[in-house]
């Protein structure tokens, strides 16, 4: 019995019915909004006022696009984990089935030998033993032997029945798992398609946004607005962190692991644009890669933030907090408690980024500090 071959065959034969959902309607609405803004940009770019207004509209649309991507990516990630669990369950059941099947064959052989022994012993019935005037002691021994064979035979039959019932139950579980696995695979195919459509919509929005940021002055203004947005979030996070006095905080004595694997693309304190400097580090990493909490703590912010995309902030106590930005999706919500090295988000390109990566900050009492003081390379 090859369960995996059955599963593969059923997946290949499967057909996915596509239905028009509320998500599709929302995507169409955003595509319509984008076309309207594109038309405005093409018609006139004469005044700064109009350009700024268009930029704000595009940023608002970009937020919706990236939130939709985050929702789709979260579904894909959840389905992927469920598929992994079911695959492990199927492998475990395969192993158990093989063990029980081997046991059943052994029990059948044992029972067959017992029946053969009972048949041979049956040539000496009780009446013949009495007529042959065998001694009572000899008769008692033989009767005890017959009883032993009979008890052993009954026990073997019961064991075989139990094994057969267990095997039938495993076959039923395998059938259920196979059905669930097929459904999940089809769901993931649809989710991947939805994610691709959302990413395509985001690219169009981002391309139009870049047009409105064609000069260095506009880019600098945008960065300053983004920094102000982040400052407000940190101030709010500081107020929220006062409710977590029991957390241990970070320590520079014991170096922690970086939140994700990758190359440091921009270091702390390096110039970003004009007088704006990096308050954290950017780690180049593959989209969808896991982002882990550097230490235990409590999530005090988990939402989209202008310039930083999907952002998650963890309070570690004693005024320390870590910030994770540009995520594809967030796996935790505000108020959740997280453990050290627990997966909290996935690497992405949100916040208008053209390349995937993680923006990572460590702050103490609201002030940004070099993450390299706490994280080892």
TrEMBL record:
Residues 1-24 form the signal peptide. It comes from the Bacteria. Residues 277-371 form the M23ase beta-sheet core domain. Residues 27-54, 178-240 form a coiled coil. Keywords: Coiled coil, Signal. It holds the Pfam family Peptidase_M23. InterPro entries: Cell_wall_metabolism_enzyme, Dup_hybrid_motif, M23ase_b-sheet_dom. This is Peptidoglycan DD-metalloendopeptidase family protein.
